[in-house]
Amino acid sequence: VSSQEGNVARPRPQRHQNTVSFKNDRFDKSTQTKKINTRLHDVCQHCEEGLEWCVRYSKCKPLSKP
Fold first, then answer.
1. What is the rounded CA–CA span in Å between residue 36 and residue 58?
2. Which region holds residue 38: left if phi is over 0, alpha if psi is between -120 and 50, else beta?
3. How far is CA 15 from CA 10, 11, 18, 37, 38, in A?
4. What residues contact residue 28 under an 8 Å CB cut-off, 6+ apart?
5. 54, 60 Cβ separation under 8 angstroms
6. Where is this region: Disordered (predicted)?
7. Fewer Cβ within 10 Å of end Cβ, the chain: N or C?
8. Which pLDDT tens digit goes with each residue over 8-65?
9. In whole angstroms, what is the distance from residue 34 CA to residue 40 CA?
10. Is 41:48 a contact under the CB 8 Å cutoff?
11. Phi-psi region of 6 (alpha: psi -120 to 50; beta: other; left: phi over 0)
12. CA angle 42–47–48, rounded 5-degree value
């Protein structure tokens, strides 16, 4: 089992692999999603990478109040 302590080698390759990348606006064509996708962030590089990941995979929502 891959969750055993000290077992770092998997006996088989990954079972399922995505052939098409996730698109966060594929089914959601709302103006809110468009706004989130076009927003630029003025933060440090480390935080910007995290925010880009959240936007790319639809994990973030805009704040209701600033």
1. 9
2. alpha
3. 11, 12, 10, 31, 35
4. 58
5. yes
6. 1-31
7. C
8. 777 888 888 889 989 988 888 888 888 888 888 789 999 999 989 998 998 887 778 8
9. 12
10. yes
11. left
12. 55
Which residue in the block uniquely carries the two structure tokens 């995979």?
A: 57
Query: Which sequence spans correspond to the domains of the chain?
Result: 29-60
Residue-by-residue DSSP string for 22-66: --TTSS---HHHHHHHH----S-HHHHHHHHHHHHTT-----S--
36 closest CA partner among 7, 17, 18, 58: 58
pLDDT at residue 61, as a whole number: 76
